[in-house]
Specification:
- Two copies of one chain form a homodimer.
- Chain A has 396 residues and is α/β, with parallel strands linked by helices.
- Chain A folds into two domains: 133 residues, Aspartate Aminotransferase, domain 1; 224 residues, Type I PLP-dependent aspartate aminotransferase-like (Major domain) (Aspartate Aminotransferase, domain 2, 3-Layer(aba) Sandwich).
- The first copy, chain A, is built from 14 helices and 15 strands.
- In chain A, strands 4-10-9-8-7-5-6 form a seven-stranded mixed sheet, sandwiched between helices. A four-stranded antiparallel sheet of chain A has the order 11-12-15-14, covered by helices on one side.
- In chain A, helix 2 packs antiparallel against helix 11.
- The longest helix of chain A is centred in the last third of the chain and has 20 residues.
- Chain A is globular.
- The two termini of chain A are 35 Å apart.
- In chain A, 59% of the residues are buried.
- At the A-B interface, helix 2, helix 3, helix 5, helix 6 and helix 11 of A face helix 2, helix 3, helix 5, helix 6 and helix 11 of B.
- Chains A, B: It comes from Primorskyibacter flagellatus.
- Chains A, B: Its cofactor is pyridoxal 5'-phosphate.
- Chains A, B: One of its GO terms (molecular function) is kynureninase activity.
- Chains A, B: InterPro entries: Kynureninase (IPR010111), PyrdxlP-dep_Trfase (IPR015424), PyrdxlP-dep_Trfase_major (IPR015421), PyrdxlP-dep_Trfase_small (IPR015422).
Amino acid sequence: MDFTATREMFDLPEGVIYLDGNSLGPLPKAAAERISRTVQDEWGEMLITGWNRAGWMAQPSVLGDRIGALLGAPTGSVVLGDTLSVKIYQALAAALHMCPDRKVILSDSGNFPSDLYMAQGLIAGLDKGHELRVVAPEEVADAITEEVAALMITEVDYRTGRRHDMPALTAKAHDKGALAIWDLAHSAGAVPVDLTAGKADFACGCTYKFLNGGPGAPAFIYVAPQHADTAQPALSGWLGHEAPFAFDADYRPGQGIERMRVGTPAVLQMAALETALDIWDGVDMQALRKASLALGDLFIAEMRAPCPDLTLATPEAHAMRGSQISFRHPQGYAVMQALIARGVIGDFRAPDILRFGITPLYISQDDVSAAAKILAEILDQKLWDRPEYHKRAAVT
Amino acid sequence: MDFTATREMFDLPEGVIYLDGNSLGPLPKAAAERISRTVQDEWGEMLITGWNRAGWMAQPSVLGDRIGALLGAPTGSVVLGDTLSVKIYQALAAALHMCPDRKVILSDSGNFPSDLYMAQGLIAGLDKGHELRVVAPEEVADAITEEVAALMITEVDYRTGRRHDMPALTAKAHDKGALAIWDLAHSAGAVPVDLTAGKADFACGCTYKFLNGGPGAPAFIYVAPQHADTAQPALSGWLGHEAPFAFDADYRPGQGIERMRVGTPAVLQMAALETALDIWDGVDMQALRKASLALGDLFIAEMRAPCPDLTLATPEAHAMRGSQISFRHPQGYAVMQALIARGVIGDFRAPDILRFGITPLYISQDDVSAAAKILAEILDQKLWDRPEYHKRAAVT
């Protein structure tokens, strides 16, 4: 599959090599017009009737299904809304409620901190002696014991790009009587995911990274069909009610995945996301994966030759890798600032990770080679040593 | 104060009298250009650096302060994010944690159902014998006893427009040792609110109704300064962490109101909201209130003459009224459909409420008189009896 066509579907700034699509995907060319339509023709002209006439109310399910199709999830098992942290809370609360006799949430130190924080907040609120047990990524499999209520893991490590074996860990969890919750933040649009074959119980993710839905795009949640009508919603908002517009005094959960909706969806964000999903319609995930691995291999090779001492943080084995390449450098922050000053945008993750998203939809071999050359030059000439690269911004 | 200037700041469709700004405010004229700038110049050009360079990360606090200024809240006590249901959950969870020895959440039957649902979900999760006690609106004051942990009330009833006496109920709550949580969904931008003088402990609201922030605009939460550094965040997401970008393994709540942030904010929605708040900069809330009451009185008078039997659901006393006028009619749904077919947009709320938002920013005396004439005609000629007005849409 040739990705020059998808590259043409994005607005990429001149002179920039964008290796941070794992943090915020770029602007689809169709987004501006689509958002403008939602603003002027829908909000402006339809006003309140847009909820029906423009389909706003249905959009979290309609777009949820389109994301589900990328993840091997059946129709009606994915819905959009809120942020990933909120969706993790919903999944975890439902899972703990399904396993009342077990007290351990098992996660790993490669999980995104917000997932751990949400678990900590939930545990404090429940006040029932739950424990968040955090082990090293490579120790997760052995730590799945009969104490575990829920395994809560981000499939691809946000720092290193290390990828867990979702089907194997899920199978082990099930074998021990635990449920498996997967955070797909760095998987959706990055690697082939099959939630059905992988037998995940719950999954969540965000849509502004590899899916390119735009800054603040809504999160998604998947609930396996066998749990969807019994999962108890902790965040029991009106749009998850069986009949939201009956305005009953008592909550009754909606059918299936609908119960995971909470409040009013972010209509403008969904308009942007829709144009991003249009691009995904034509993409073969297996071809994308092949291209991603080839670009990653190229980046590693191009750095190894001039900088043999640079520490690769990402596993080289394809099966253990997501769609990013990370290196460790003691001056990682300043190195990244020097890169950005030269038009190569990646990001830094404390304490020492240089992180580069590999996104074949709009990044080519030439981009990767050029970025590698610039990085090698910065390291070779210690260009990171300039004072201006050591100033810290609010968001790094 | 003359509101012809503010009316000019909105795009209102031709031939429509829009009396549903209490459900979704209309489009500010400046919004389309502002959103387009965020999409093309910020997302498109700045990409990930927009979080700092375009101020996206600070926006929930910056806009929160601007909303706080409309509500008598000091700088640094209001932050944007999520939906109103989620913010209610946060406020209620924090309040219950502050009153561990009391088990009653007191609310009323005029509260928006989602608030009640969120309380029910929280209670089920806590599983500590809490009770949601729901009384009639006029019985709230007497029901505030020493059993009550938190009073959770929507100031203005979404159906009837009845307004509670916030300072009096809050004072009674405090007298009995309870905390007061106020939902300002139908207050913010509708009536003068003074959270400081009213001594509210927590307050939440949405920004897409009277504030005109657009479909899916984020909610806001206020925490009184004396609680802000001790309130425990149930939804302990990374952006509420003391140092989000340190990526620590353990959650430590941020300073003050910042801890009520959860996940990535909805950047496009905030751009729209910003233009709506620009309009509010020039508005005198006391003048707005005076105009709102006059328009409401006019609507009541114009309906009473031709339809003396129509039941007014809104209290006539100014002090007990928000900024909407509601009537009860047994065929309310069909009456509203007949009105909408004639260009008068209000909404219907089950079981029998015809609800009309009174929004002097863009609604004039002529609009109100014209709407009243059309409604009188529909009732007089029983035009609601046509079959096409009895079809139910998904969202009503």
